[in-house]
């Protein structure tokens, strides 16, 4: 994987990417490694971690560290936080949470309570338990970024995507409440990704490349984004990414 985009200087930093073996996580991990950070990736599957490692350039792999465990449960997230703390001096510099996933099913009411509850529990709850465990182990001045999807922010909501629309909207409100609680230290932001990424990389027709998403997430973790806090950032276009990464962000580019 290669990217011509400028990246922040993160040499000596340690970042953790929740969901790092997933479709979005791959690009976040790659960009953070290219920026110079050591990257911790919690994983329940050695096979998925090995696959992630195989997709990275060989010179980056030594700074990729797997943490065994299930970060999506309260107990597992606390164990991951302990492992992360043991590998750092003074705490993590950045956390990127890419655990959001897509869901489309039957119309919301006919799908029933159990189907709705499953979507909420599998998408919103992990963001709470991850933040509860990892925000306290971030260094002063650190960064916490969640990746969200756009379906909860569109004017039209279709019945088949009702549960995931509710989940993404709830995620956003949760993250902004956490941002209010931290008061800016650490910085907390929710990035709404208007890109289509799949197991084989960027999907055809996506307005953004995965490398652009990853580079923007790395930028949010870096010193250039020190004043960015409590934002809902809609990442929509390559020009928006390039402007931000080159220090020429316009009004609205950062929420």
Describe the structure.
The protein is 39% helix and 19% strand. The chain contains eight helices and nine strands. The model has no long low-confidence stretch (mean pLDDT 94).
- Work out the number of β strands: 9
SSE string, helices as H and strands as E? EHEHEHEHHEHEEEHEH
How does the overall form come out from the CA principal axes? globular
Ranges where pLDDT stays below 50 over 5 or more residues in a row are none
Global structural class: alpha/beta
Name the helicity range: 25-40%
Strand content: 15-25%
- Order of neighbouring strands in the sheet with most strands: 3-2-1-4-5-6-9
Q: Which features does this protein show?
A:
255 residues, alpha/beta, seven-stranded parallel beta sheet, 9 strands, 19% strand, globular
């Amino acid at each position: 994987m290669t990217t011509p985009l400028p990246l922040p200087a993160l040499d000596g930093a340690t970042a953790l990417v929740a969901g790092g073996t997933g479709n979005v996580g791959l690009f976040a991990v790659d960009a953070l490694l290219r920026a110079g950070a050591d990257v911790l990736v919690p994983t329940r599957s050695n096979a998925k971690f090995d696959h992630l490692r195989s997709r990275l350039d060989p010179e980056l792999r030594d700074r990729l560290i797997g943490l065994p465990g299930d970060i999506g449960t309260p107990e597992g997230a606390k164990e991951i936080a302990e492992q992360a703390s043991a590998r750092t001096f003074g705490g993590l510099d950045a956390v990127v949470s890419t655990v959001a996933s897509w869901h489309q099913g039957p119309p919301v009411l006919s799908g029933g309570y159990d189907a709705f509850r499953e979507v909420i529990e599998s998408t919103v709850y992990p963001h709470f338990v991850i933040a509860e465990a990892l925000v306290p182990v971030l260094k002063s001045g650190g960064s916490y970024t969640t990746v969200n999807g756009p379906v909860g922010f569109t004017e039209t909501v279709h019945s088949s995507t009702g549960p995931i629309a509710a989940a993404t909207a709830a995620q956003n409100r949760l993250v902004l409440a956490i941002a209010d609680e931290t008061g800016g230290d650490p910085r907390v932001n929710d990035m709404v990704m208007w890109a289509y990424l799949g197991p084989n990389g960027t999907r055809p027709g996506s307005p953004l490349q995965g490398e652009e998403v990853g580079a923007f997430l790395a930028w949010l973790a870096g010193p250039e984004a020190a004043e960015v806090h409590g934002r809902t950032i809609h990442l929509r276009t390559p020009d928006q990414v390039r402007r931000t990464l080159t220090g020429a962000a316009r009004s609205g580019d950062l929420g």
